[in-house]
Design brief:
The chain is of the alpha/beta class. The protein folds into two domains: about 160 residues, Rossmann fold; about 120 residues, N-(1-d-carboxylethyl)-l-norvaline Dehydrogenase, domain 2, CATH 1.10.1040.10. It has 14 helices and nine strands. The protein has a six-stranded parallel sheet, with helices on both faces. Strands 7-8-9 form a three-stranded mixed sheet. Helix 1 links the parallel strand 1 and strand 2. It is elongated, with a radius of gyration of 20 Å. The relative contact order is 0.09. Bound molecules: nicotinamide-adenine-dinucleotide. The site of nicotinamide-adenine-dinucleotide has 25 residues, from helix 4, helix 7 and helix 12. It comes from Roseospira visakhapatnamensis. Belongs to the HIBADH-related family. InterPro entries: 6-PGluconate_DH-like_C_sf (IPR008927), 6PGD_dom2 (IPR013328), 6PGDH_NADP-bd (IPR006115), HIBADH (IPR011548), HIBADH-like_NADP-bd (IPR029154), HIBADH-related (IPR015815), NAD(P)-bd_dom_sf (IPR036291). This is 3-hydroxyisobutyrate dehydrogenase.
Amino acid sequence: MATIAFIGLGNMGGPMLANLIKAGHGAHAFDLSENALVRAEAAGATRAASVAAAAGAADVVVTMLPAGQHVRAVYMDEATGIIGAARPGALLIDCSTIDVDSARAVAGAATDAGLRMVDAPVSGGVGGAEAGTLTFMVGGPDDAVEAARPILDCMGKAVVHAGGPGTGQAAKICNNMMLGIQMVSVCEAFMLAKRLGLDAQKLFDVSSKASGQCWSLTTYCPVPGPVPTSPANRDYQAGFAAAMMLKDLKLAQQAAASSGAATPMGSMAESLYALFCNQGDAGALDFSGIIRMIDGQS
Ligand code: NAD
């Protein structure tokens, strides 16, 4: 069993840490939030006084932070960062969803310091973090990914090695760009059907077995009825919050701009989710709730 430093103990990191401890690993935990630290101690972790103190006490460092600027600072700050404080040969695993450029910059700095690092963003949400059923999309060299696999297995059900540094983040944002575009397309189809006098259940019965079939239709159907477990049946309580979808669509657009990829539908989906999230507290609703805006009812 490893001694793990876990930094970033929020909605995702808290339950992920708990699953590592349940699997028998020792853990030194750090977060800026006192409440998060209290919860981590209750789960069995040792409270660390700083990022560097946690990293210096461990063989493996796992981070679950909000965005690229937090990851760059927590890893690369010369005086207080993980890379300066980590033990020789330590394995660094960043599970945050961040921009590809930051992921590659941090991985490069870690490699230069003689450390092994992978980017390992997740899908599965808070429910998956609690149940230990996350899917990890992992970017990094073969040896680092194989070293990370048994740690990730304690928190998830699937570990996919996507390629070199940054490709875990690339897989995550490409997938979620598809998802965002598909959800908008499914919402538009149901609203068009409504205006044409076609019953929602009938459209579902046809399209779920025809070429319009996709996850946004068959698992997260944005109208109440056809899929009883979808957020539409509970007034669009998330689920996967619209604000999270907007974050991922912004990352996709940032990556498209820096790599020269044309993603006109991704750009349109980003604009629509930005408009939706600007409407009161719509950002907290499930991302399928954008059907209200598309229907002109929000
Ligand atoms: P969160 O805001 O609940 O948690 C982030 C934690 O990081 C907070 O507790 C915060 O105090 C801590 N933090 C920030 N800066 C810090 C620093 N310098 N040092 C130490 N701790 C610091 O966010 P979350 O929902 O847990 O999401 C974390 C990451 O996971 C994000 O990148 C998000 O996009 C990704 N993600 C979230 C979900 C989800 O459903 N919540 C799903 C998939 C991926």
